[in-house]
Amino acid sequence: MSEQDSIEHPVSEQAPRRKRADEIVDAIKRMIVEHGLGPGDRLPQERELLAQFSASKGTVREALKALEVQGLISVRTGPGGGAFIERMSEGRAMSLLSNFLFAKKLTIAHIYEMRKVLEPLVAASATPHIDAAGVKRLEAIISIYDHEPADATERWNQRMAELDFHGVVAEYSDNPILAFTSRFLQRLLKDLAIAQDIYVQPEPVLRESGIRHQRDLIAAMMRRDAQAAAAILAEHMAEAEQHMLLLQARLEDRFLSETIEPRKRRSRRSAS
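Structure (tokenized):
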């Protein structure tokens, strides 16, 4: 091969070879789906897996451990033991995602950038499926925060209930990815430190406007108007984002003033 050919047709680099344990993890996942295995069902015994995958005992056990860490199976020892399919709870899945995002420096703006896009879609997809029981649940949640809180505890409960309202709407979505992502974003807001600081502040909230949006949403869903439901949630999310960012700015300004003012006083005392 000439030098020119080697320049025009460089030798392609081979993709790095995957660990054998990772390949077995994927194969077991396919086996679970193809055989219709569900929670409580047992995987083949270890010796069968060894033969099926032509792998060492250590490699198969590494694969099973990875599946256990992912929450897909549980490994039990003793008589009647083995690897059993587990039901991955939504809470565990969210915890795993939260751990992944732990060091990503999430902000309120990040979360609302997603919520502004997804919440209207969730509302539209839930509209054809909401029933009388769902409407009753939504109205009961509104009653938690349709008045001024009596104390800090009630204030906190009201803020959490405002997020729970959207979680109930998501339950009626026919798109499981949308529903899960919507509830995950609501959980992130509940867990985000700066949002928690905002929620405990005795600041005025957009109670009347927010409740009006939510009641309008309920009415749109009851008449099966998905387009109106999406538009209402788009307006509601945009307003909620502005309000949260404003409260964040006030909180940060207050923190700075409380930090800087004592320094000024100490400087004046030192100069006198």
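The chain has a mean pLDDT of 87. The domain at 17-85 is CATH 1.10.10.10 (Arc Repressor Mutant, subunit A).
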